Amino acid sequence: MAHDKKHFLMSQRNLLFVLNPDSGNKDDISQQYIIDYFKEKKEFTLSFFIPDWESNVKEDFSQLLNSHSFDTVVASGGDGTVNFIAKNIYGKNIKLGILPTGSANGLAKNLSIPLSIPEALQVIEENHTQRVSSITVNDHFCIHLADIGLNASIVRRFERQKTRGFLGYFKAFRATIFNQKKAHALITTDDNSIDASFYMLVFCNGTGYGTGLAINPEGRLDDSKFEIVNVKKLSLLEALRLYWGQDKPHPDYAKISSCRHVTVDLKKPIHLQVDGEYLGKTKKVTADFNDLFIDTLVPKKNNI
User: Which residue of 81, 115, 130, 274 has the fewest C-beta atoms within 10 A of its own C-beta?
Assistant: First the structure.
């Protein structure tokens, strides 16, 4: 009996679920839903945290992490919720789980995490991990994608409107695309400096956007570099090709390069977004690869 008790204690898992009340458009996820899923699984201890973004949420969350021994923190939300958790557990011996209940769920899709909540909970239960890298963009933690130009302008409009999900993104896209102008910048990486013009410059830790656009399909989340995608031309047909086939962008429309550091000096201020959060205009962007990785729960047959 003593041996059985010791085995039980060793296999106990202490999970913290962070439920973002402002995220996405799914109504089938709740604290009780998660409790019901795990109620017969005695090796799990569940805790919950609902962020109040109007209060000192960072301090409250840090105190919670420091006062408990969570082995996994699960983000129930979109890329913004994942970003919040990832930057707070970075460098700690804590795994990251994802319940994709946001509007786009870009990182979850990049990691092949099911959008079905029961299936996503099963991934958390199975406890299979994949190391995931991150970057720092203008002092902001980024675990998925950051960009300047077109998409950041769309995100800005998306945040100001009421319609969410893909339809909301499409409405923001339609209202923005025809007013977009090229930006000009000096781009300095590990290897060289070039003068470039672009409609959008993407700093890719992930492979593509949650909307399905595979902007960087050959990128990996578990390597030691990130990619810069210079979108030189806008083409609806090229965008549809990337949506449908996830082929590499044609070099006439986009140029992809890999690095661990980049500095972008812009001639005029331009919109910036990081992991779906609009951060205003900037005349300079620096992006650096972060040396540590985050163990993230993914499907057993996942291959990123």
Answer: 115
Residues 6+ away with beta carbon under 8 Å from 221: 110, 111, 130, 132, 133, 205, 206, 207, 304
Read out DSSP for 201-249? Answer: EEEESSSS-TTS--SSTT--SSSS-EEEEEE-S--HHHHHHHHHH-PPP
Q: Give 268: exposed, middle or buried? Use CB within 10 Å, 0-12, 13-18, 19+.
A: exposed
pTM: 0.87
Q: For the chain, first and last CA: distance in Å? A: 42
Per-residue pLDDT of the chain (304 residues; tens, 9 = 90+): 444 444 444 479 999 999 988 765 454 467 899 999 999 999 999 999 999 888 889 999 999 999 999 999 999 999 999 999 999 999 999 999 999 988 779 999 999 999 999 999 999 999 999 999 999 999 999 999 999 998 888 888 776 666 565 666 666 666 666 677 899 999 999 889 999 999 999 999 999 888 778 889 889 999 999 999 999 987 777 777 666 655 777 777 889 999 999 999 999 999 999 998 999 999 999 999 999 999 999 999 765 5
Helix H or strand E segment including 42: none
Report DSSP letters for 67-81, one per residue.
HS--SEEEEEESHHH
**Number of residues assigned to the chain:** 304
Name 222's Cβ contacts closer than 8 Å, sequence gap at least 6. Answer: 130, 131, 132, 133, 293, 304
